[in-house]
Write a structure and sequence with these properties.
Layout (H helix, E strand, L loop, with lengths): L10 H16 L8 H15 L4 H13 L9 H11 L18 E9 L3 H8 L6 H4 L4 E6 L23 E11 L7 E2 L1 E13 L2 E10 L7 E5 L8 E7 L11 E14 L7 E13 L2 E2 L3 H19 L7 H13 L2 H21 L5 H7 L10 H17 L10
Antiparallel strand pairs: 1-10, 2-3, 3-5, 4-7, 5-6, 6-9, 7-8, 9-10, 10-11
Helix pairs in contact: 3-4, 8-11, 9-11
């Protein structure tokens, strides 16, 4: 399960919010359009149309439409332009721009991951491994919801044949909650529908993953990154808003989002793979979309840094070890989970002083080493899983119980 809506508010978005507020206050009753303003508007209209081939845009539309259960899966002919585009190494990500859609502004990005595709699926499309394990910098919690077709397969996705004539097609839904934004501190939760298509193209195994946010997210809640993002230390409160002094009061939402991600072998049975994706997001305040393509790219870079930090580590534990650890934590009672995580709360309190995190809402949840009591059972398990991954990857693991 890869990141779909894991694109967060950046400082540019919040600045835009403040600028809009200021503009509404200072706007004259009548205004003429200058040549410079007209040129900017023409550029915006051109950007909204995008420059990806028509066949690629049509395939994206067909895939997004196919996500709900019961809708028709696009045939090979419809997908061919997308497959050719996404697996073409000559396509430069920084020159391609998808068209704007009802569900938001779009961006295109790609990256190479030094792991075989089948092995990648064993970590990232394994219903027994929650998303926070492999996407620690952007995901707080992620899991497939009951009834999703990825459960109960006669063979897991990574062991299934990739046949273009009879592709494996799976649909389902996921719950997801993201980590705090690195600038605003806001974090969100939502449900997304997902479509998976395992097939082959030009002799290479390809996995297409399509996700659509089902409804607006929860209102943004107040959190913060404690120290470096690469250390995976995040602090969460139940307070609505953000850490921004001038806009901390604003109720922000992720209104809609969609993504089409194509994972392909760099060559048949290769030891590396390519990830190519188009992502769309509409998010902001007062139903005003504040997201631009550059914000999506910024979020994608954060997602990729965390993903590679985990999957390309020489100390990466096996999928079986991760699943076993998840089962052990799930079998613990809530009191033991809180006790086990207690040292982490004390650590966060120390780090909050070190990084001058003085907000009263954060002080409140950290007071008297009671942070673990502000978390529910699933939050506790998620954080302890991250502590397990830290310990195996050679990072600073604070809270650990005996396996």
């Amino acid at each position: 399960m890869e990141v779909n809506n894991k694109v967060f508010f950046s400082k540019d978005i919040l600045r835009c919010m403040l600028l809009i507020m200021m503009a509404l206050i200072s706007m004259p009753s009548q205004a003429s359009t200058s040549p410079f303003e007209q040129e900017d508007e023409e550029k915006k209209q051109s950007a909204a149309k995008g420059n990806m081939p028509d066949g690629v845009e049509e395939a994206v539309s067909a895939l997004v439409h196919a996500v709900p259960q019961g809708n028709k899966t696009p045939d090979a002919a419809t997908l061919a332009p997308l497959m050719a585009f996404m697996t073409d190494p000559s396509v430069k990500a920084d020159t391609m721009h998808p068209a704007k859609r009802d569900y938001g502004q779009g961006a295109f990005f790609r990256s190479r991951i030094n792991m075989p595709l089948r092995r990648f699926m064993q970590y990232c499309f394994n219903p027994d491994i929650p998303g926070e394990v492999v996407y620690p910098t952007v995901i707080r919690r992620n899991n497939w919801k009951p009834g999703s077709q990825i459960f109960g397969l006669d063979a897991p996705l990574w062991k299934r044949d990739a046949n273009p004539n009879t592709p494996t097609v799976l649909r389902g839904a996921e719950f997801e909650e993201i980590t705090p934004d690195t600038f605003s501190g806001s974090y969100y939760s939502y449900t997304q529908q997902r479509l998976l298509i395992l097939t082959k193209y030009n002799g290479k195994t390809v996995l297409i993953s399509v996700a659509v946010q089902s409804a607006p997210s929860s209102v943004g809640l107040k959190g913060t990154v404690v120290g470096k993002d690469s250390d995976w230390n995040y602090l969460y409160t139940k307070k609505q808003g953000s850490t921004l002094k001038l806009a901390g009061w604003a109720d922000t939402f992720m209104y809609s989002a969609a993504s089409v991600m194509v994972y392909s072998e760099t060559a048949p049975d290769s030891r590396s793979m390519e990830l190519s994706a188009v992502k769309y997001l509409k998010a902001g305040w007062a139903k005003i979309n504040m997201v631009e393509p550059k914000h999506i790219i910024s979020g994608a870079k954060r997602f990729l840094r965390g993903l590679k930090q985990v999957l390309e580590s020489p100390s990466l534990p096996s999928p079986e070890e991760i699943v076993a650890r998840k089962k052990q934590l799930s079998a613990m009672n809530e009191s033991d989970l809180r006790t086990t995580l207690s040292p982490y709360g004390a650590f966060l309190a120390e780090q909050a002083v070190r990084y001058n995190i003085s907000d009263s809402d954060f002080k409140k949840v950290l007071a008297d080493n009671q942070y673990s009591f502000s978390l529910d059972r699933e939050d506790l398990i998620s954080e302890l899983l991250k502590q397990f991954m830290k310990s195996r990857l050679g990072m600073n693991a604070v809270a650990m119980s005996k396996p």
